[in-house]
Amino acid sequence: MASAPMDMTIIQGDCIETMAGLPAKSVDLIFADPPYNLQLGGDLLRPEGSTVDAVDDAWDKFDSLGAYDQFTRAWLTEARRILKDDGGLWVIGSYHNIFRVGAALQDAGFWILNDIVWRKTNPMPNFKGTRFTNAHETLIWCAKSEKARYKFNYHAMKALNDDLQMRSDWSIPLCTGAEREKVNGRKAHPTQKPEELLYRVLLACSEPGDMVLDPFLGSGTTGAVAKRLGRRFIGIEREEAYIAVAERRIAASRQVEMDALEISRGRRAEARVPFGALLETGLITPGTPLMDLKRRWRAQVRADGSIALGKEAGSIHKIGARAQNAPSCNGWTFWHTETAGKLQPIDMLRERYRTEHLSA
Amino acid sequence: MASAPMDMTIIQGDCIETMAGLPAKSVDLIFADPPYNLQLGGDLLRPEGSTVDAVDDAWDKFDSLGAYDQFTRAWLTEARRILKDDGGLWVIGSYHNIFRVGAALQDAGFWILNDIVWRKTNPMPNFKGTRFTNAHETLIWCAKSEKARYKFNYHAMKALNDDLQMRSDWSIPLCTGAEREKVNGRKAHPTQKPEELLYRVLLACSEPGDMVLDPFLGSGTTGAVAKRLGRRFIGIEREEAYIAVAERRIAASRQVEMDALEISRGRRAEARVPFGALLETGLITPGTPLMDLKRRWRAQVRADGSIALGKEAGSIHKIGARAQNAPSCNGWTFWHTETAGKLQPIDMLRERYRTEHLSA
DNA sequence: ATCTTAGCTGAATCGTGCA
DNA sequence: TTGCACGATTCAGCTAAGA
């Protein structure tokens, strides 16, 4: 129950102006669900405030696309400014707008990491039978630049998917039933996103305590899931009516207990153990023979933690690579010791070292 | 240059120049598989040490995003000119290029009708564990303009999908095995598309006798399927080696009787539900204790869908097996939640997930 | 002949930390 | 900034060889 009210902020206002007031490099993750209906002339204002004015069809369409692009570039510019260098940006859209958004964020220097398909299990049919049932929406996940580092909880995603790598297509139902926010019995927001979708995004690309921003808050799904997962949150929304819904909803959301927020981390997060530490603690002794699983090569442990194979000596990794004539090798899993005729990877010894010497 | 029947033509040359020589409004359907501009780095190694056979061909290299955009605008301009007013344009791509292509074709006046996701049933994994498995490609289907009429064989698509409307996500395997064109035992083209994909496109958006154009012919999949379905065809390809493959392939393709259409793939088996989906939907919450029927073991659910038993964490199946010291375990029936003193297998929650979220 | 298993491969923007 | 050592990391389907 760590999340204090101060960690969950909703700001009423225009998303571009509001983001302009936030400090640079202060946000870990941005999830954006921008408007995509290009025909809503009233929704699309030129930066100087004038309304898009239709002249004839062709001109109007060009002008609408251009105005939408300008709007997209403007909010992406602010998003980029307030995003930390290792932060992530997610945008969701449909074929009406996602190609323009994707091109604009590439132009702005963002580096696409994946496009994700939200495959709706229960989409609305195409009633007229004139096209394919539009059964998905597209999300783009990107880092701040080509070389930028970014957060990705690979093992948590794998755990969430029954120990198979999480794919770029996600089958998730539409937000319906009890989860759908209602006002006077009618849906409170036309495009409320399912919490399952945001749960996956936030679990994949942020950690507890991170600052998450949603510049197009709407009914507040991102805020509700951020609170549930112990993330800090800022939501920006222009419409007072939506803010009322989101505030009520986020207030009702409950953070899960902190120790349940633990996720699978994988070996990269574990303390590094030099092979030599096994010798220093007597878990392995100089002179011990090492061999690969098929006993094709046989090396010998030396007192300084190097191993010798024929005339060559070096680290468990280097000699493993040399033996196979491979560019690299994980010596921990390649080399084995033999006990009573059974082979055991030296990684088991590293495991023992960690529990016996590093646990406390 | 031309292959057997007069209406199957392959032209060697640059696609823009060649299209410029074709008459205006002469083509019913264009299927384009342009270079993706992948921008790959160095070699990529699989975990076991082998190297991924990457697309490193010169034809996929562009100096900049701007150069790629210019190329895209140029071929789209010619495509637009030679397309009949009620013709259709399909383009396939990945996140590397598809957003630029989509924006460019909207700018050129094309009207997007659907974006289609080719969901690969057997994609290459992400070997380094750095991103989501890139498991799909995207196709854009558009008409010549907003008001243009276009061809769509709605009932053929519905029949192909067990009398359900064809959706915008198509599950189709990669082109492998006997279908994959080989030269000297090696793949003839790095990006050969599966015939199932083109079959669906051509069946949906053209009729027998229509003129189909593929400006980036490659190994000739579009031509082979066009012939099979009794469509006329023009393919354009720059590389002589690919033309040789495509000519041989198209020559071997046989037109089918139109009533002998390939049977549609049945609906997939009952959807697999990852344990993590229960968390995403709130059917179970992080921190919930799980126990076996005899309450001998007690584990705790974590936010990523793994469960923790003592110091160990992993999938419901793995931890169930570990607890009993068994080689395997069905976690769905082994683990239970407790409500008012009564134990209930988590399989009941999976059942609820299926009825509440996957039924429609 | 039939079953099992090892091996290979597919449009891929595929690492981190310290000296 | 660059260089180098450490050592993390894979799914489905087909094919050919072995049992």
UniProtKB/TrEMBL annotation, chains A, B:
It holds the Pfam family RAMA. One of its GO terms (cellular component) is cytoplasm. It comes from the Bacteria. It catalyses: a 2'-deoxyadenosine in DNA + S-adenosyl-L-methionine = an N(6)-methyl-2'-deoxyadenosine in DNA + S-adenosyl-L-homocysteine + H(+). Residues 27-247 form the DNA methylase N-4/N-6 domain. GO terms for biological process: DNA replication; methylation. GO terms for molecular function: DNA binding; N-methyltransferase activity; site-specific DNA-methyltransferase (adenine-specific) activity. It is an enzyme of class 2 (transferase). Residues 261-357 form the RAMA domain. Keywords: DNA replication, DNA-binding, Methyltransferase, S-adenosyl-L-methionine, Transferase. Its EC number is 2.1.1.-. PANTHER family: RNA METHYLASE-RELATED, TRNA (GUANINE(10)-N2)-METHYLTRANSFERASE HOMOLOG. Belongs to the N(4)/N(6)-methyltransferase family. This is Methyltransferase. It comes from Pacificimonas flava.
